[in-house]
């Protein structure tokens, strides 16, 4: 065992001895039963949070690094355990030193009182001997009074002897306290007073480097869906709930839109916790009824399909006004090309890492899905892609990094069955299952900030976690 650890062992042993003595001996002494010192020799262990994890790594044919990274929750670094333990020990020693000083003052005061009583007792004892020698000179009554007084004072003699012993012990304890303080100060100097600050800075630097690495990640490809996590049970069988993927980390507002038609009320909650508890912060009365459940909140505005039309509305939550509206040319509406569950789900508005999208079907594309990228300000179609997947055969769909993922059903056994990349204008059939716990999904949208799928599952608001495959960009990539 190294010298610092031996010293620390001595400290703990001495503190335990002091605590035992004070808890067992002092309460039995006269006048000291109101002072108690409690110590604990249990040190709190600090377990670090789970860190960044690299699940796999490899090189592609061009020599570039390929890896799967799972980022941890953001948190603050835990304090260094040894430094924290030492600070706790120093605080305990200081508290004990103060308590011992109080005990010493009381003991000295009572000791002086007992010494005075001892002098009186010796005088009475001498008088008693004199009386014994010449009983005939005093009355029997006076003798009895003195005898009773002596009997009252006799029990103080053991107390006096105990005080003499305890006074010496307290002096020893004071010396031990001084020694403990010196030892602890020496240990702290050996470990270093600024270890925690240095360690914290190193962790902050590492986190910064890892975040810089994350910025180099290309858009991910969907590999797995896990969950769901049930957040709340509310509303009708159909509806939508969402957060803003472009909001700041401190802005966690939730928007809630119950039913797929005949409604204009949007409810806002300041956080997921408020949403769960039902603590509504604000209500918006839209100028138009919406159609379907495939709305999206993006950069502070709500985008929705106006009821019985193929018109898209952009509504600002800040101003409470419609900022833009535009007809989506040739798009089917009012249950012409809905998802398999119906509900006027002809036009699906969504957002991902790239921007704002509309997914729908047209007669010109034989009822198959059309993907259009939209200008978030004007709602103008920037570019469109025609797929070969029938809109009426899709359960739901969502965009991740410019790729559309389509489920084969809204009922039990649903899975991601088809994907279409707008980057390469190619498609592939996939087989990514997920647990449709409540048997009827009427809304499924990806949130790029949370890296999660928001879903409305038969009156249950749930979240699915997604696992994406990333490729790290090199300096040579354009």
UniProtKB/TrEMBL annotation:
Superkingdom classification of source: Eukaryota
Compartments it resides in: Secreted; Synapse
Look up the coiled coil feature and give its residue ranges. 79-141, 170-216
- Name the GO terms of the biological process aspect: signal transduction
The residues forming the signal peptide are: 1-27
Q: Which InterPro entries match?
A: Noelin_dom, Olfac-like_dom, Olfactomedin-like_domain, Quino_amine_DH_bsu
Q: Which PANTHER family match?
A: NOELIN-3 (PTHR23192:SF36), OLFACTOMEDIN-RELATED (PTHR23192)
Name of the protein this chain belongs to: NOE3 protein
Species source reads Falcunculus frontatus
Q: Quick one: which gene encodes this?
A: Olfm3
């Amino acid at each position: 065992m190294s010298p610092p650890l031996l010293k620390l062992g001595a400290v703990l042993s001495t503190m335990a001895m002091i605590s035992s003595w004070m808890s067992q001996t002092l309460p039995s002494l006269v006048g000291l039963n109101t002072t108690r010192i409690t110590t604990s020799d249990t040190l709190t262990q600090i377990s670090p949070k789970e860190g960044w994890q690299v699940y796999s790594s490899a090189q592609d044919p061009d020599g570039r690094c390929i890896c799967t990274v799972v980022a941890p929750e953001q948190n603050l670094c835990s304090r260094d355990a040894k430094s924290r333990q030492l600070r706790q020990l120093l605080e305990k020693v200081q508290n004990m030193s103060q308590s011992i000083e109080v005990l010493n003052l009381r003991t000295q005061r009572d000791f002086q009182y007992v010494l005075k009583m001892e002098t009186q007792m010796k005088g009475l004892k001498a008088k008693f001997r004199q009386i014994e020698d010449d009983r005939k000179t005093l009355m029997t009554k006076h003798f009895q009074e003195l005898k009773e007084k002596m009997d009252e004072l006799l029990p103080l003699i053991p107390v006096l002897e105990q005080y003499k012993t305890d006074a010496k012990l307290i002096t020893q304890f004071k010396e031990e306290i001084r020694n403990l303080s010196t030892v602890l100060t020496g240990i702290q100097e050996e470990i270093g007073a600024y270890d925690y600050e240095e360690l914290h800075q190193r962790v902050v630097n590492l986190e910064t480097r890892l975040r810089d690495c994350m910025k180099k990640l290309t858009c991910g490809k969907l590999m797995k869906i896990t969950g769901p996590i049930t957040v709340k049970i509310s509303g009708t069988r159909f509806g939508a709930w969402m957060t803003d993927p472009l909001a700041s980390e401190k802005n966690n507002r939730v928007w809630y839109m119950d039913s797929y038609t005949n409604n204009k009320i949007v409810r806002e909650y300041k956080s997921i916790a408020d949403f769960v508890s039902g603590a509504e912060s604000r209500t918006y009365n839209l100028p138009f009824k919406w159609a379907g459940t495939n709305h999206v909140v993006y950069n502070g505005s709500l985008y929705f399909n106006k009821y019985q039309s193929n018109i898209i509305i952009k509504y600002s939550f800040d101003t409470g006004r419609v900022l833009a509206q535009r007809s989506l040319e040739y798009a089917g509406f009012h249950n012409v090309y809905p998802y398999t569950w119906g509900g006027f789900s002809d036009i699906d508005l969504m957002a991902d890492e790239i921007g704002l999208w509309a997914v729908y079907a047209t007669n010109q594309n034989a009822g198959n899905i059309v993907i259009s990228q939209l200008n978030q300000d004007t709602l103008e179609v920037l570019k469109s892609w025609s797929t070969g997947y029938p809109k009426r055969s899709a359960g739901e769909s969502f965009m991740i990094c410019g790729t559309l993922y389509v489920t084969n059903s809204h009922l039990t056994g649903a899975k991601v069955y088809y994907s279409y990349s707008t980057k390469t204008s190619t498609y592939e059939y996939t087989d990514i299952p997920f647990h449709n716990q409540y048997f009827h999904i009427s809304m499924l949208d990806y949130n790029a900030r949370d890296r999660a799928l928001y879903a409305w599952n038969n009156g249950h608001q749930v979240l699915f976690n997604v696992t994406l495959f990333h490729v790290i960009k090199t300096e040579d990539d354009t």
